[in-house]
Amino acid sequence: MNGLATVLILIGLFLIGGVISFVKQGMGKSLITLLSISAAFCLVAGVLRLDYWN
């Protein structure tokens, strides 16, 4: 199940990249907040899943 943890972590990092890009472009605060929360959930779920299975 390490593959799922890896995918979740990669999606979280991808979303963080989107947050950084949107902040630089000056996009809306609600979109940035939504992406930040989604990135945090993906990263936490990936790390917890990786820790649980190893």
Please tell me about this protein's structure:
This protein has 54 residues and is mostly helical. 91% of the residues lie in helices and 0% in strands. The chain starts with a helix and ends with a helix. The mean pLDDT is 88.
The helical percent reads over 70%
List the uncertain runs.
none
> Oligomer, anyone?
single chain
Instruction: Estimate the strand proportion.
Output: under 5%
Structural class: mainly alpha
Mean pLDDT: 88
Count the DSSP helices. Answer: 2
User: How does the overall form come out from the CA principal axes?
Assistant: elongated
Distance between the termini: 9 Å
Series of H and E elements: HH
Count of extended strands: 0
Q: From the alpha carbons, calculate the radius of gyration and give it in angstroms.
A: 13 Å
**Major beta sheet, specifics?**
none
What is the compact description of this entry?
With 54 residues, the protein is an all-alpha fold. The chain is built from two helices and no strands.
